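Input record (one chain):
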Amino acid sequence: MVSETETSAIGNALVVLGAAGVVIPAFARFRISPVIGFILVGLLVGPSGLGMLAGDYPWLKHVTIASTEDIALFAEFGIVLLLFSIGLELSFRRLWQLRKLVFGIGAAELIFGGAILGSAILLFRDQPLTSAYGLGIALALSSTALVLPIAGTKSAVGRASFSMLLFEDLALVPIIFILAALSPAASGDSAELLLTTLWQGALVVAALAIGGWFLLPKIFAQAARAKDPELFLAASLLVVIVAALATAAVGLSPIVGALLAGLMIAETEYHEEVETITAPFKGLALGVFLISVGMGLNLQTIASQWPSLIMAVVGVVLVKAVVTAALLRFAGAARRGTAAEVGLLMSSPSETTLIVLATALQAQLISRDTAEFWQLVTAIGLTITPLLARVGHDVARRIEMRSGDAQDEETPEDRTVIVGFGRVGHTVAELLREHGRPYVAVDADIDTVAAARRDGFSVRFADVARPGSLDKLGIEHAKAIVLTMDDPVQQLRMTRQLRRKYPNLPIISRARDADHAAALYQAGASDAVPETLESSLQLAEAVLIDLGVAMGPVIASIHDVRAKMRHDIMTKGKLDHEPRIRTTKRPIAGNETA
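The corresponding structure, as predicted from the sequence alone:
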């Protein structure tokens, strides 16, 4: 016979899985972040939504969740899996490169943001000194669970956000111990307990890192030999849970252990397989966490205190956005657009804010009413995080466009002009920048331009398809122009126009194939590079070598194909010389034949 507890658990699972199956596709269809959808589902099925009617309509018990505690464990596991997946995308070397951002700007953002928010609470909310600054530090924390899925970790915005969030996660344990030490009922052993936790935590982290270095490759090698995806999943979850429990056992946050587990697996050759297998669980578990956030929104309390709540949310968002953006600009760690976008993205409170508020309540530093008020502020802030991210993106785009227009006159005269900033244009610009050659790129996609500028590239917005747009690029002073667009007709038209106006200008164009390259040469291109040629030759080279063919005959065959391609382009383009299709010579290993 099924007990009432088991029935409730099944009902909770039904609600969560149903929300994931409905919310994600529905919101994706309208290009809306599913974050908002999960929070709204939590509000709808939670104790302040349909759950409050379950007493009058018993059937609602099967489609509602009675309390946040019922799914709290799954929500915490979602955050653990999120940090684990973030660790998979990183490496110890990259973390070392970010150390100045983590311990410099990350620390400054938490300290200054907490001090300003605490002073405002002290001034406007009539709280005791320790309570006000404890609340300020709690509200200065930002949401790892929401910010990183939005920003990632590889863009300029993602790198800055991740650095500050990492420091906040590391600082969570000292914050909790300090608040406990400030409690009126605290004993004199709190400082000693904090020091004990820190040295034990450092010892556990070192032990996990060393053990993972030697054991993980062997564990995943056994799973790979079995060719069983379930073993990979089981091994991955085992590593995450062991690392999280180990750090939690000594008083550190379990998310520190999860991040460390991801970092250790990222150093192995199995990280891509692990990331693929665990991705669905991460998304579902994160959805559970967001549902729990929505369940924390009490509509009756919001309706009775909405002016104060709105002022508090707006105040927290403004203070954190300004402090974060100002620190990034003052330290020279980000462009203006990037700083503004990171500031708005990081401006809402965090899921860890709820943990700090619970600690402050338990330590008798704040009253229950005060804790409930700021918990609502936190839940509302988490709800509007995707909207703040969208606003930040738009603001950053406008700032970058204005700053880019102001810098156009400063562009050196001997620059290379790159038309189109997709994957090919990006690679060309990156190599020019690496070798200290001035350039300017143009693209007709405003989001591409803004994103490139945030990453430090010199890119302008220009639609070269419009008449007269080429005249504004200052091509008469350029040393060369590179055409990387996808439209072959537009490339031919631009090549003819450029050759008529600038007879001596080197024009290097991306071509689709030999026929397109021949047409570009006829139109006046100095060099036309068929994009399919080298990728096809490298693929054929890899296949032949893996099949056991000696390197010498393979290279000779590739030279023959390249020579035939040159001859075809020369014939079709009616050229009086062979086109320059060449590849960089690579060094030959001692056991290879030239």
